[in-house]
Amino acid sequence: MDTEKVQTEENTRREREIYRVTLSGSVVNFVLLLFKFFAGIVGHSAAMIADAVHSLSDFVTDIIVLVFVRISSKPEDEGHDYGHGKYETLATALIGLCLFVVGVGIFWNGAQSIWHVIGGGTLPEPGMLALAAAVISIVSKEILYQYTVYVGRKVQSQAVVANAWHHRSDAFSSIGTALGIGGAILLGDSWRVLDPIAAVVVSFFIVKVSVKLLVPSLNELLEKSLPAEVENKINGIVLSYPGVTSPHHLRTRRIGNSYSIDLHVRMDGQLSLEEAHRRATAIEDRLREEFGKGTYISIHVEPIKSNPLTGESGTR
Question: Which residues form a coiled coil (predicted)?
């Protein structure tokens, strides 16, 4: 009961920190997207409008994190024996998907503008307001990234770290936007195409970040095993206990910010049930010490019986 109380208090603190950092980000994103849309329209900048759309996606992902992290922090219940941790993983996948869609959309719009110039068309000159908006966005989003990624790693939240990278991708987007707008303003009419070119370049960065978020979150949702180095560490911990041998049938997966570990071990068949249970519990405690108190662990004990004719050991 004390362990459950401690775990509940930790979940509450974790949820509070996640809400604080995400709410701060959502306020900044909302102000930025309004300013960027205004600056893009008034300043005649396709790159800035694309950047504003990116900020809109940031705001949407903030809402996703706020909703899904609250769900994922709920304890186990009758219908969710392993808790609700994968809701956070689902949020990460949705953020990655949003980024991917935004990246493709920015690429498409920029490519259309470039094709328009190749066909002999002209683009309007971006205004200084659009350039100022890009610079403000770069500074504010990088600060927001540093704050968010710090909290995300501290509370071990994939969704918050993913959201931090969404902030940084917006900063990268604004850097490209600033270069494109600045070049279009300072280098003359024939260089206005730099504005949509900047949008296209930024789109590649956004898609790259989206893939980095989507792949691990989809792997978790599809029950991919933990990395080999983690499984090797698990086996090493098990084998460090005297009288415990042959760890096998190891099955691992990630559930939100926790691990799930199932394995079989072998012990002397002459041990009492109480002693076998004590050893298995000691292994569980050591694994939770290594991988976190919220780790789900199931250890199945198999007996070893010596063959009186050969002196060899076997299972039964």
Answer: none
Mean pLDDT of the chain: 81
Q: Please give the model's pTM, rounded to 2 decimal places.
A: 0.63
What DSSP letter does each residue of 2-25 carry, written as one string? HHHHHHHHHHHHHHHHHHHHHHHH
Q: Taking residues 108-126, what's their average pLDDT?
A: 82
Close Cβ partners of 234 (under 8 Å, ≥ 6 residues apart): 247, 250, 252, 261, 263, 287
Q: Choose one of 157, 187, 221: the last residue of a domain.
A: 221
CA distance 51 to 28: 14
What CATH number corresponds to the domain at position 240?
3.30.70.1350
Q: Is 296's pLDDT higher than 60?
A: yes
Could you read off the pLDDT of 10-30 as tens digits, one per residue? Answer: 667 777 888 888 888 889 889
The domain boundary, picked from 221, 244, 265, lies at: 221
| CA-angle at 241, arms to 287 and 6, nearest 5° | 30
Tell the burial category of 120 from Cβ atoms under 10 Å away from its Cβ (0-12, 13-18, 19+): exposed
* Distance between CA atoms of residues 262 and 223, nearest Å: 13
